[in-house]
Structure formats: C-alpha cells, structure tokens
Amino acid sequence: MRWKCNVLARRFCLALLGMVLFCSPPPCGASGFQATLPVNATLVHPVAPPPSAVSVVEGQIRNGTLYEALTACDIPPAEILSLSRSFKPVFDFRCSRPQDFYQVSVDDQRLIQKFVYKTSPLDEYEAVKDDKGGYRVHKRHISLDRQVVAKVFTIETSLYQAVADSGETQQISGLVADIFAWDIDFYLYPRKGDRIAVVYERCYKDGAFVKYGNVLAARYVGRQKTFSAFLFNDGQFDGYYDETGQPLKKMFLRTPVKFGKMTSRYSIRRFHPVSKRYKAHTGIDYGAPTGTPIFATANGRVTFSGWKGGYGKLTIVKHPNGYQTYYGHCSRLLKKRGQLVEQGEVIARVGQTGVATGPHVHYEVRVNGKPMNPNKVKKSRGKPLKPALLAKFKETVDERLLLVDRLLEEKDSLVMLSQDH
After folding, report:
1. With left for phi above 0 and alpha for psi between -120 and 50, is residue 322 left, alpha or beta?
2. Which residues, 6+ apart, have CB-to-CB distance to 39 below 8 Å?
3. Which residues in the chain land under pLDDT 50?
4. What fold is seen in the domain 55-139?
C-alpha cells in the first residue's frame, strides 16, 4: 500500500511540474516566443522621426521667369526641371505672364512638396509630389457663385452705348449681338427708343465678379418687329430658339475660317492649276496663312480624320438631314473620328497638304453624298425641336417670356432673380 502511495505522489508532482513549465515564459529564441528581459533592463519603444518642416513661399512672376523665382528660393535646379516637365501636359511655363501667381511649399531640404500656379481667377493648376519623386499635376476645379439677373437696355444711339450707360461691360452687348446675329444687323437696324430685356448670369468667386455666364433669354422690341431668344439644350447642344422652337442660328456658317480670302469658287468645270486640265471643283477654297483656325460650320459628328489622296489631311463632319462638310489640305487635325463638334468650334488648322499650290482650306458640302455649292445652303436654318422636346421647351420659355415682358413694362432696369452657391 505504501508503494502505491509513493507512485501516485510522484505522478502528482510530475503533473504539477508540467503545469508550471507550460505557464512559465518560453525560452529565448523559440519560435513565436518573447525573450525574458533582465531585471534592470528598460523597455524602449521605437519613435517615428519628426516630420520635415514645410515652408510656403508665394509671389508673382513679374519681369522674370518661374525658374528665376524658384532658384531665388534655393530650390535645386533639378527639382524645378522635374516640376516643369510634369506641368507640360496641362500648362507650359514658357507661356507665363508677369501677373501669374505661384505658391510653393518646400521641406527643410528645399525640395518641392506642393506647387500651385494661377494664371487667372478661373485657371489654377496644382502639383503634388508623388512617392516616386515626380509630381501629379491637375487643373483645379473652380466653383463659382452664379447670380441670375434681368436687365432692360434702352437704345439711344447704339446697343453698345446702351449697355455702357447701364454700367455693364461691352461683353454683354457682344453676347446679345451674337445671339441675334442672323436676324439683326446692330449697326443698321436699331432705332432710338428700341428696348432689349436680357436675362443673364453673373459669376463670382469669393465675392468678386469674374465673368458673365449664359444669356438665358433675350427679347428685342423694335419699331417694326420683335425678336426673341431662349437658351435650351436639345440633348446634345445648347442653342437659342424663338418662342415657337425654331433655332435662331442658321444651320451653316458662311465660311470655315474667320479671315480667309476666297481663292477658288465652286465650279463644275475649272482649270486645275496642278493637273493642267479642266475638271469639276466641288468646293470653295479659302486662302489663309498656315495655322489659321478652321471652324466646323455646323453641329455634327466627325466621320473621318486623316489623310485622303489629293485632299491631304482631311476632316469630314456629318450633319443632320444628310449633310456632310469636308475640310481639306489641313496642316493639323484637331478632332478624332467619332467626336461631336459644335458650330464654330476649331477642328483643324489651315495648311498645304495633298495637292495644293499654297496654304488654304478646301471647303466642301455634300448632301446624301453629292457635292453642292456651299453658298446654296447658307440660308438654311437648323432643325426645329422634336415634339418630344417641344413640351419641355414650352415650360421653360413660357416662364421666361412672362418675365421679359413684365420687365419691358416696368420702369425698373435691373432685377436680381436668384443666386446659386
């Protein structure tokens, strides 16, 4: 019996020893275990290095260059070169002007961490250093406060003078003249006493006026006739329409270049200066210096942009009702196939590519694939609004029509309608 008690006692001691070993700190070096510190050791936690101090320097370019301004801040030339290269896709510093503003944030090693460049209240660019030492550059989105106002101008001598007398800038008179350009010759038509009610936007930034926005509605009351214009989007483009939904703009501009001289007319039989034989000339040539902007003469979609035989570099735009316009001999093509273009938008530059004796644009109009004289379509107006859009248009127009009519009856010349933030 005494032997059995000794065996049980030994087993109990071994079990108790195992529990002590299991609960004790693991030996140093064992996987997943912590080493036991000496009694007099002090535990030190790792401390992150303090962030580099950042200083901000700002100023204007004035009569120098950005390079000179930044080197004066002890910024290494390599940093400035890297910044300039990163900026090129959005802004070329060679186009800097004296009033341009810059703000640069540098660390204690004079390395650029952030850079802001402003060329106007509406044009701000920002560069932030990335993990690879380069810069992420973008144009900042500028939020503007828009104030919608309505004003009546009474003509004594001219529209321009009426606008100036009211305290507005000539930009408003230009906007109104452009809207009614197809119907009113503002040098000849206006008479003393004619009145124009205009609903338009004023845009502000930080409380300061920066530009005019859209003209939302205008109504010209003359001695002989009244003209109206209302801004409306047809689902693709903004445009001006009269109160019945008819577009004010003609479908086509007169010419694809602003200052071009006609050098060759449309003709079914013309002596070709290069081939030295008579052949049809299916368009009109406008001579202009190389690089002159070429405008889309109507809204449409680019269906071809590339090289095409004697046309050289050619852009073809497709328009409603089976119309197409060709712009040939370009030096540069600025639009790609499939892009939408608006009337008056720059789509190419004048050149001398293909079969050409001098810099010009060959302008051609086709209807259902057949060439026609461009001068025959200059009086055509754009398509009226579709019935599905007409109801929505009427809702907008009826409200604005009541507004401009009420303004013309009242003596007050200026009314603030709303302000959006």
Report:
1. left
2. none
3. 1-5, 7-9, 12-49, 271, 421
4. Nuclear Transport Factor 2; Chain: A, (3.10.450)
